[in-house]
Design brief:
With 329 residues, the chain is α+β, with helices and mostly antiparallel strands. The protein has two domains: 245 residues, Aminopeptidase (3-Layer(aba) Sandwich), CATH 3.40.630; 74 residues, RNA polymerase II/Efflux pump adaptor protein, barrel-sandwich hybrid domain (OB fold (Dihydrolipoamide Acetyltransferase, E2P)), CATH 2.40.50. Helices cover 22% and strands 29% of the residues. It is built from six helices and 19 strands. The strands form two sheets. It has a 15-stranded mixed β-sheet that branches. Strands 16-15-13-18 form a four-stranded antiparallel β-sheet, with no helix packed on it. Strand 8, helix 4 and strand 9 form a beta-alpha-beta unit. It is globular, with a radius of gyration of 20 Å. The protein starts with 6 loop residues before the first strand and ends with a strand. The protein binds zinc ion (ZN). GO terms for molecular function: hydrolase activity. Its EC number is 3.5.1.125.
C-alpha cells in the first residue's frame, strides 16, 4: 500500500515533551503547496504503556478538545511512565469549522476508517491513525459528545467484542474512567468507525458521550478531566489515586432502543434525559410546522428503559434519531 502523505513534526520515540503537528499536504486554490497542520503533543519518559488520546473526531464536540489542549499544556514528562500521545482535534478542519464532518470533503471521520492514503483529507487522516498511530498505542481514548444535534447522559462506553479478554480490558478501562454512567454500547452504524478500527487490532479502547448541544458545560468538562486522569492512572502511566464516584451501569439489549422519526417538525419532548419509560409511553410529540390545526404525531417507547440520548435542537427532519433508550443493569 502507498505511504501516507502525513509527516509528523514530533518524534514519537523521543523522551521529553514535544508540541508539533501532523502535517497533511492539502493543495488548493489559495495555497498551492499548502497543508493542514493538526496539533499533536507527545509526552514521554522511558519505555512503558502508550496512551493515544483524541478529541474532535467530530468537529462540534468540545469536552475532548478542552481537556486535551489543557493536558497537553500541563502534563510534564516527569509525571509520566511511558508515553502519552495527544491529538486534541483529530478532524482538525471539522473542528475549526465547528461541524461534525469536514468542510473539505464532507466526510465523517468516524465512518472513514480504515481510510485511504490517496483519498480525501479526512480519509488520509484516518489512514494515518489506522497504520501509524493506532499500532503504537496500548490504550486508546476517543472523546465524543452529542455535537449540535444530540444530547447525551454523560457516559464512558465499551463494546461487546468477540475476544472476551479484550472486552474485559476495555470494560475495566471504561470503569476506571468513572463517568456518571458506564455503558455497554450498541452501534447502529459501526462500519468505518475508529472504535472498530482500534478494537479490531486488539487495543484497549474507551469512548465517551459526555453531553452535547454543540457545547460543553463545567459539569461535562469536569467529567472528562477526571476521566482522562483516572484512565492514565489505570494504565500505569500516571501515579496517584484515582478519583472515584458512583457510576450507573447501562446496556442496550436490542435495536428497539433507537427511535427514528418518519416525520419532520417541531419536537416537544415529554421526558428528560435519565427518565424511565415503559413500552408505549409517549417520549415526544412532533407538531407540523406548515399549518395550524393538525394534531401532533406521538413518538412512543418501543421498549422499557431510561432516556440516554435525545435529539437537539427544537426542529427535526424525517429520518432523525429522536431518542435512544438504555436499560439499567
Ligand atoms: Zn462524535
Amino acid at each position: 500500500m502507498r505511504a501516507n502523505p502525513i509527516t509528523p513534526t514530533v518524534d514519537f520515540e523521543m523522551d521529553g515533551k514535544q508540541h508539533g503537528h501532523l502535517r497533511l499536504p492539502y493543495s488548493r486554490n489559495d495555497s498551492a503547496w499548502g497543508s493542514v497542520l493538526i496539533p499533536v503533543s507527545v509526552i514521554r519518559r522511558g519505555t512503558g504503556p502508550v496512551a493515544l488520546l483524541t478529541g474532535a473526531n467530530h468537529g462540534d464536540e468540545y469536552e475532548g478538545p478542552l481537556v486535551l489542549f489543557e493536558l497537553a499544556h500541563s502534563l510534564t514528562p516527569d509525571q509520566v511512565t511511558g508515553t502519552v500521545i495527544i491529538v486534541p482535534a483529530m478532524n482538525f478542519p471539522a473542528f475549526l469549522a465547528g461541524t461534525r464532518v469536514s468542510p473539505l470533503d464532507q466526510v465523517n471521520m468516524n465512518r472513514a476508517f480504515p481510510g485511504a492514503p490517496d483519498g480525501t483529507p479526512t480519509q488520509k487522516i484516518a489512514d494515518y491513525f489506522q497504520r501509524t498511530l493506532l499500532p503504537m498505542a496500548d490504550l486508546v481514548l476517543d472523546f465524543h459528545s452529542g455535537g449540535r444535534t444530540l444530547d447525551f447522559l454523560p457516559f464512558a462506553a465499551s463494546h461487546i467484542l468477540e475476544d472476551k479478554a479484550q472486552e474485559a480490558r476495555c470494560r475495566a478501562a471504561r470503569d476506571a474512567f468513572n463517568a456518571p454512567f458506564s455503558v455497554e454500547m450498541r452501534e447502529i452504524d459501526a462500519l468505518g468507525m475508529y472504535d472498530d478500527a482500534a478494537e479490531a487490532i486488539g487495543k484497549t479502547f474507551v469512548t465517551t458521550e459526555l453531553g452535547g448541544q454543540g457545547s460543553a458545560t463545567p459539569y461535562t468538562t469536569g467529567i472528562a478531566r477526571k476521566g482522562v486522569r483516572n484512565l492514565l492512572i489505570h494504565a500505569g502511566i500516571l501515579s496517584g489515586e484515582p478519583e472515584r464516584a458512583p457510576t450507573r451501569y447501562l446496556s442496550q439489549p436490542d435495536d428497539a432502543c433507537f427511535h427514528f422519526t418518519a416525520q419532520g417538525g417541531l419536537v416537544e419532548f415529554l421526558v428528560s434525559l435519565g427518565e424511565f419509560v415503559k413500552p408505549g409511553d409517549p417520549i415526544a410529540r412532533i407538531w407540523q410546522t406548515g399549518q395550524t390545526g393538525s394534531a401532533p404525531r406521538s413518538v412512543t417507547a418501543q421498549r422499557d428503559g431510561i432516556l440516554m440520548a435525545r435529539h437537539h435542537p427544537g426542529l427535526c427532519q424525517a429520518g432523525d434519531c429522536l431518542a435512544v433508550l438504555a436499560v439499567e443493569d
